[in-house]
Amino acid sequence: MADARPMHIDGAWVDAQDGRVLDTLDPATAEVLATVPAASAADVDLAVGAARRAFDGGAWGAAVSERDRGRLLLGMAALVRERHEELAQLEVRDCGKPIADARADIDEVAFMFEYYGGWATKIIGDIPPVGPGAMSLVVKEPVGVCGLIVPWNYPMLMASQKVAPALAAGCTLVLKPAEQTPLTALELARIAQDAGLPDGVLNVVTGVGPEAGAPLLTHPGVDKISFTGSKEIGKLIMRTCADQLKRVTLELGGKSPNIVFADADLAAAVPGTSNGVFGNQGEVCSAGSRVFVEAAIYDEVLQAMTDFAGSIRLGSGLDPATTMGPLVSREQRDRVEGYIEIGRGEATLGFEGTRPTDPALTDGFFVPPTIFEARSNDLRIAREEIFGPVMTVLPFHDVDEVVRLANDTEYGLAAAIWTRDITLALTTAKAVRAGVVWINDSQPAPSESLWGGFKQSGIGRELGPYALDAYLEAKQIYINLA
Description:
Aldehyde Dehydrogenase, Chain A, domain 1, seven-stranded mixed sheet
C-alpha cells in the first residue's frame, strides 16, 4: 500500500478537509508511490490565513531581523545537504530523471538557500537628494503573502528558487507543487520546520491546478503570485490576477534556437546541442529544440547528432547507467508522441530511438530521442513547445538569415550560439531576442545570475539578486527638515 503524505499548513501536517487524495506515480513503472491530499479552496484558505497571520502578526517579515532570516536559510541549506541522497532518490522516483541529474539538482537546492541566506542582510534602499529642507529615504519591504506555483520538471529546484528569495525578502508563502511531483516540496516544508522556521511562514498545499492553484489567484489575502509553467496557464494567471492588481511573476515556455556556425568546435557543439534538447528528457523550458546548422556543415552535424542520440540509454532513473529517464506522466508522453506523429507529416524523420526492453519498465512513460530534418521554420514541430526529447534541425546560409529565423517565434527565453569567432558570437547574441544567451555552451543556469525571458516567455526575472525584486516593495519615507 502506498504511503499517505499529508500537506503542511500552519506548522501542522494535515489532510484535505474533505478527505480527498490523489496518487503520485513512479513514471518509470506507472506504480503508485504515495497518496497526497487533493486540496480545495477551503484548504487554500487555511494556508493563506496562516501565512497572513505569520506576516501581519510578526512571526516573520519586518519583525524578524535580517540576520535571523539569513541564519534560518543557512540552516535549511545544511539540512538539505544532510539529506542529499535521500532527496535525490525521492526526486528520481517522483519525476523520472536520471539520478546524476537529481543529485546535481539537490546540490543546487542547498546552494540556493546558502546564497539567499547571504542576501537576507544585504537588501538595501537609497537616499535620493531632494533639496536642503527635506530628506527622502527609499526602503524595501517584503511584498507580503506569496503564492508560489511550480512545475514538475525540476520539482525541488524550481520550488527552492522561489522559496529561498521570498524568505530572504521577508515574505510568507503558500507553495503549490505540481500534482505529478509533490513529494520533495513536502520534504522542503519538513526541512524548513526542522530548521526552526516559524509556523505559517511556509505552507505547502498539494492538489490539481483548478482546485488547489486557482484559489491562490483570487484569494484577497495573497499579495503576489509567482508561477513557472506553460504559456497558456501563464496568460490565465495574468488575466485572473488583474482583477485585484495582484503582483505577478511568470516564467513560461520557450522554443529556443540553437545556432551552430560552420567554424564551431564540433567536438563541443554536437554534445552540447544534443544535451540542450535531450537533457532532462527534453522537459526543459529553455530546451534548444530548434537547431539551426550552417549549410556547409549540415550533413556532418546531423550525422553526429544522430550518433549521439543513438548512444542515449533509456531506463529507470535509479539505474546509474541510465542517461534518459521517462517523461513525467502518461499525459505528457501522449502529448509528445502526438507531436512526433505531426512531425512525420511535416518533415523527414532522421532518427528515432528505442524504448527500454526491461519488462519492469513496460508501463513506464518513455519516449526515445527523436530528430527531424526540416526545411522550414513554419512547422508545428518548429514553432510549438513540445517539452520532450524532440529535435528539429534546419539549415541556414548566413548570419542575417539565422537571426531572422531565430527571432521568428512568439517565445524569447533562451538561445545558444556555437562559433570560434567572438565578434560573430557577440553580434549574434545581441541580435537574438532572448532573456538568456549561451555562447559555446547550452543550458547552464547559475543561481548567481538571472533567468527569464522576452516576449511570451514570461514577465520578470528569477535567480541572483534579480529574484529579490519580485518579492519586495519600494517605499519612500519623506522627512521635512525645515
